[in-house]
């Protein structure tokens, strides 16, 4: 009985910790830049999308994390991200100019440790649709290449099977479809 109590207490403490951590990350990422600065940084043309991003606490500091959200979604496609997928996402972040120690890097790391918000794919898809055509084309090439790297980071069996699972392929298709619309 004491084991159940301790286990319940541990879970409650973990949930409280992650709730505080999430609130702090959102606080750090939400900056009062205003729509003009956010529009310029994002390459957005839709004022309603800029308002939606601001309502989600996504200012210019967090746009980089949002642009790499598909990598996190691919990592979670089979359940929890494993260490290889986690390393692949964070290496992609470093390669995209999001170094460790930045708020955007911390948000990506948080999304890898705790499941990202349920509406992240919808928010990201709407963000992609609101981009200027040239910004969307550049993001498409970069994000899909990195998403495939994350999908191939682990899995397979002795090199005989595909490293990309059925769930990861389905997520990659959903991401590709977001660019097609």
Provide an overview of this structure.
- This protein is mainly alpha-helical and 181 residues long.
- The protein has one domain (2-180).
- Helices cover 72% and strands 0% of the residues.
- The chain has helices at residues 2-29, 35-42, 47-55, 60-67, 69-76, 83-95, 103-113, 120-130, 133-151, 166-180.
- Helix 1 runs antiparallel to helix 7 (103-113), helix 6 runs antiparallel to helix 9 and helix 9 (133-151) packs antiparallel against helix 10 (166-180).
- The longest helix is centred in the first third of the chain and has 28 residues, at 2-29.
- The radius of gyration is 17 Å and the shape is globular.
- The N and C termini lie far apart (55 Å).
- The model is unreliable at 31-41 and 156-160 (pLDDT under 50).
